[in-house]
Amino acid sequence: MAALAQEAPGIAAALLAGLLAGLAAVLLTGRLRAVTEQPSGLYRHHVHVPLAALLGAGAGVLAPSWLLVLPAVVLAVACALLVVVDLAEHRLPNRLLALAYPSLLISLLPAALLGPDWALLGRALLAGMVVMVVYLVLALISPAGLGMGDVKFSGLLGLALGWAGWQSVILGVLAAFVLNAVIALLVMVVRRDRRGEVPFGPAMVAGTALALAVT
């Protein structure tokens, strides 16, 4: 068991996580179709599959031990499905979030029980709640900027960031807002439309990935 807690080889973990995430995304295609409300080329071309594989490979590289490869896969698949729906329909379905939360928590249990410090799970749970409260307050202050789907999604990402540490939590949250502002500005310039809406989910995922990569 101790070997599982050792540092995971980057390339091997990336290949395994990418493969598993891509396969899981294929298997969850039916679940994705069940929650969609509008037609989109993103669904038609199964963009969630390569996106899940890409996110899974990236998360696998960042996983500090083999025990965290499975949580990396779960998080990657959840993010891929949610981002695709957010890009296509500007919403984050409750049914996908309801599946993602217990899946990520269950996948973290082996790492908590067999890893060096089981208290990491407690910190992750606390961070998830703190981040969700922050997003909820911001959504109540500016409902046009954040939706309840973003609030619910933030808890999931906060859970992952919290496992890595409070520095990751702070950076991940701040990075999401900065990246979203940059994306919104670029969209305004390209479309020349100041009223164009930009889904926040992709920036949240990008901010989380950035924070996990540098902390």
Please tell me about this protein's structure:
The protein is mostly helical and 215 residues long. The protein folds into two domains: 1-116, no CATH class; 118-214, no CATH class. The protein has ten helices and no strands. Helix 1 packs across helix 5 and helix 8 (148-164) runs parallel beside helix 10. The chain is globular and about 50 Å long. The protein starts with 9 loop residues before the first helix and ends with a helix. The mean pLDDT is 92.
Summary tags:
Prepilin peptidase, 2 domains, 10 helices, 215 residues, mainly alpha
Note the topology.
Blueprint: H1 10-27, H2 29-35, H3 41-44, H4 48-62, H5 69-89, H6 94-114, H7 119-141, H8 148-164, H9 166-191, H10 201-214
Helix pairs in contact: 1-4, 1-5, 4-5, 5-6, 6-8, 7-8, 8-9, 8-10, 9-10
Alpha plus pi helix count: 10
What is the succession of H and E elements?
HHHHHHHHHH
Structural classification: mainly alpha
Largest sheet, if any?
A: none
What is the helix fraction of residues, given as a range? over 70%
The best one-word shape is globular
Summed up, the domain count is: 2
Distance between the termini: 26 Å
Radius of gyration (Å): 17 Å
